[in-house]
Amino acid sequence: MRGALVGFLLAAAALILASFAVADLPAANELGRVMILEYHKIDYPEERWTRTPENFRRDLETLYARGYRLQSLNGLIEGRITVPAGTSPVVLTFDDSSAGQFRYLDRNGTLEIDPKSGVGVLEAFIREKPDFGRAATFFVLPGAKPPNNLFNQPQHEGRKLRWLVEQGYELGNHTLWHANLGKYDEGTVRQQLAEAQVWVQRHVPEYRFRTLALPHGVYPKEIGWALSGSAKGTSYRHEAILMVAGGAAPSPFAKTFDPIHLPRIQAVEADLRHWLNHFDRTPADRFISDGNADTVTVPAANRDRLRDPLPKNLKVVER
Fold first, then answer.
1. 96 touches 150 (CB < 8 A)
2. Is the pLDDT of residue 292 over 70?
3. Distance between CA 252 and CA 181 in Å, rounded?
4. Torsional sign, CA 219, 222, 227, 228
5. What is the pLDDT of residues 21-73, one digit of tens each?
6. Which of the four, 23, 44, 80, 298, has the lowest number of CB atoms within 10 Å?
7. pLDDT, mean of residues 180-186
8. Is the pLDDT of residue 225 over 90?
9. By the 8 A CB rule, do 209 and 197 touch?
10. Are 316 and 304 in contact (CB under 8 A)?
11. Using an 8 Å Cβ cutoff, are 204 and 244 in contact?
C-alpha cells in the first residue's frame, strides 16, 4: 500500500514539474524573424571583417544563453525548422573560405583541428552544449588565391570539404574566386557559378550547391543567371540567394519571405548586439519554435501573414 502511494506521489510530482516546464516556455510564434549571421575571418586582430576566436566563442555562449539554437540554412529555406520548442533558430554562415575558419594542425604526424579556428571553436562548444545543435553553411571560393583557396591548406582541402559534409555542415556557392557578378556578361556569370561547383565535386562527388552568397552583395544584370543554368556541361540551381546585409530575415512561413533576396546580419559586435537587444525588447518579432517540424504555430491574429501555400503542406496551429 505504502509503495503504491509513493508511486502515485512521484507520478503526480512529475506531472506538476512537467506542467511548470511547459508553462515556462515562451509562446510559440513561427511568424517571427530569424537571424542569419554572416562571419568572415576568424583570426586576429578583431577588425571589420574579422572576429577573434575568443569573441566568436563569446557569440556562441551569448546565443545559447538567450535561447537560440542552430538551424541549417537548407532546412530554413525548406520550411523545416528543427530547433526545440521554446527556442529560436539561428543560422551561421561563413563567407570566403579563409584560413582561420578551418585549420588543421600536425601533432607528431596526426592531424587535429586547430582549436583556435572557427570550426575548432564551434565543435568544442557543441561538445559542451550538445543541445545547441550542429549546423553552419560555408560559402567557399574554390579558385581564389591564398589565403581564401578553400581554407588555405591545399594539401588538406579535400579532407576538409568531406569532413564538413560528413558532419552535417553545408557548402554554398560564393563563385569561383569572389567575382563581382554585376560586372560580367551572362557567360562569365554562369561559368563562375558552374565551375565553383565542379571544383568542389572533385573532392565531394555529386555534391550540389543549393544556396549562393553574393560577393560584395551584387546581383548579376539578370537575376535568372544566378538562379539556374549551365556552363561547359555542368548545370547548377540555387534555391536561395543571400545578401551581405539587410537585418533579420522574415520567417520562412511568412508572405514576406523571399529566398532570392535573403538578408543577413554581419556578425560584428555592434550589429549582433543591436539585433539581440531588439529581440529582447520586441519578443513578438522573434521566431519561437513550437518544436514540431510538421506544424506552424502562429498567433491567431496574425494568420493572414502566412504564405499560401505553405511548404510541404504544413499544418497550421493557432494560439
1. no
2. yes
3. 26
4. negative
5. 444 678 999 999 999 999 999 999 999 999 999 999 999 999 999 999 999 99
6. 23
7. 98
8. yes
9. yes
10. no
11. no
Mean of the pLDDT values across residues 96-107?
A: 97
CB 74 within 8 A of CB 262: no
Whether 212 contacts 238, CB under 8 Å: yes
In the structure grid, which three cell numbers stand for residue 4, read together? 503504491
User: One-letter amino acid identity for 311?
Assistant: P
Q: Tell me, letter by letter, the H, E, C secondary structure of the chain.
A: CHHHHHHHHHHHHHHHHHHHHHHHCCCCECCCEEEEEEECEECCCCECCEECHHHHHHHHHHHHHCCEEECCHHHHHHCCCCCCCCCEEEEEEEECCCHHHCCEEEECCEEEECCCCHHHHHHHHHHHCHHHCCCCEEEECCCCCCCCCCCCCHHHHHHHHHHHHHCCCEEEECCCCCCCHHHCCHHHHHHHHHHHHHHHHCCCCCCCCCEEECHHHCCCCCHHHHHEEEECCEEEECCEEEEEEECCECCCCECCCCHHHEEEEECCHHHHHHHHHHHHHCHHHECECCCCCCEEEECHHHHHHECCCCHHHCEEEEC
Q: Sign of torsion, CA 121 127 131 133?
A: positive
When pLDDT is averaged across residues 239-264 and rounded to a whole number, the result is 98
Cα separation of 96 and 89, whole Å? Answer: 23
pLDDT band of 312, cuts 50, 70, 90: confident
Q: How far apart are CA 68 and CA 34, in angstroms?
A: 10
Q: For the CA atoms of 51, 132, 262, 150, what is the dihedral angle to 10 degrees?
A: 50
Could you tell me the pLDDT band of residue 4, with boundaries at 50, 70 and 90? low
**For the segment 124-180, what is each residue's pLDDT rounded down to a tens digit?**
999 999 999 999 999 999 999 999 999 999 999 999 999 999 999 999 999 999 999
